[in-house]
Amino acid sequence: MALIVQKFGGTSVGSVERIRSVAAKVAKSFSDGNQIVVVVSAMSGETNRLIAMSQELQDRASPRELDVLVSTGEQVTISLLCIALESLGLKSRSYTGGQVPIITDSAYGKARIEKIRPDNIKKDLDSGSIAVVAGFQGIDSKGDITTLGRGGSDTTAVALAATLEADECQIYTDVEGVYTTDPRIVVEARLLSEITFEEMLEMASQGSKVLQIRAVEFAGKYGVPLRVKSSFTEGAGTLISLEGREDMEKPTVSGIAFNRDEAKLTIRGIPDQPGVAAKVLGPISEANIDIDVIVQNVAKDDSATITFTVNRTELDSAHEILSEIAKDLGAEEIIADSKIAKVSIVGVGMKSHAGVATQMFECLASEGINIQLITTSEIKIAVVIEERYLELAVRALHAKYGLETGN
Ligand code: ASP
Ligand code: MG
After folding, report:
1. Domain-ending residue, one of 245, 277, 302
2. How far is the CA of 210 from the centre of ligand 2 (A)?
3. 104 lines ligand 1 (CB under 6 A)
């Protein structure tokens, strides 16, 4: 008998009709002889609706009260799902985070799970019952309700799977699984049957928003096999695994990730001396602004230029801070550019293949696309380009690496 944790997102439980079909899916896995723990999100749009109501009253509601508020969305879906399971003649029991209990720290709105006591759920499973747990929420040591951050139900599911040593954690969503790239941009994008955690993290952090990144990290750390599947079609979905495909040597590039969330800042004409990079970038980090790509070069006149990217929403704050620094350092100018995009090729197979980067650069050159910045890791090469070329770049690279057929 296998123990499976199944998580259904907001769209999958978006109406009573859909909750009925989730119940049918759960019933099917149960009657196949598995022990089932279900984690559900709030009905789609519900968390936003709740937040909007609080904002009508005031902008800065206390975080404790906000968590009491938004946790109600999931409480609705656990009970409705149990009622639907009951109507199919199945035994089930619903749990809020506090009832499991899922114990977290007290960081309202972005709480971290500290411990899960699984005894109640284990008893249910042993007695032939299905456990239905509210995602996204927990309880702190004072007994206050906490929530884990937007999209946090994925993390609840993975944490439960890790604690219960589940055989698989299945994330049901509104897509079939993880694709070689966004099918809305490349119609030939192919569903991947398997991807490694490392690759998934690169794909996710680069903008393939299938799973909450934190949940993927968690699953990797605890070795929980994760499977992304569609709640609306059959299909095996994508398995995210530690080892990766058996034919791992074969594909060099597994997918193309991209995002338009970044913006670029350049500071020119600063001294080329020890300590200057720290002076430029230190105050930005101190302001809690994440910096992604960083490039420094030195001109003929020995002055230095530093270019870096930040999240587009933080461009203005970063620009302000940089203006102060520029005065101190006597910099020549600052250039801000929000019309950029980042495109990455991702694949564990790159570790053992030379020449992948050259292929990428040649491919972009043949499309007349200028590369502004380059950054690499063992399993990724990312370039920053002008935003208007993004779709062209993704399509060209997808074809270049034969991703539509998997060669
Ligand atoms: N309902 C929460 C949200 O909308 C948590 C989740 O869906 O995972 O962010
Ligand atoms: Mg979600």
Report:
1. 245
2. 8
3. no
User: What is the model's pTM?
Assistant: 0.82
Residues with CB under 5 A from ligand 2 (ion): 9, 151
Low-confidence ranges of the chain (pLDDT < 70): 205-209, 244-251, 407
Q: What is the pLDDT of residues 329-342, one digit of tens each?
A: 999 999 999 999 99
- Overall number of domains in the chain: 2
Say if ligand 1 is within 6 A of residue 8 CB.
no
Q: How far apart are CA 124 and CA 131, in angstroms?
A: 7
CATH number at residue 39: 3.40.1160.10
Q: Is the CB of 135 under 6 A from ligand 1?
A: yes
- Count of alpha carbons within 13 Å of 406, Cβ hemisphere only? 11
Quick one: DSSP state of residue 191? B
| Closest listed ligand to the CA of 44 | 1
Same domain? For 222 and 153 the reply is: yes
Regarding the beta carbon of 179 and ligand 1, being less than 6 Å apart is answered no
Is residue 405 domain-resident?
no
User: Is 406 within a domain?
Assistant: no
Residue 238 to residue 192: CA distance in whole angstroms: 6
Spatial distance between the Cα atoms of 321 and 315, rounded to a whole number of angstroms: 10
Q: Residue 344 sits in which domain range? A: 256-400
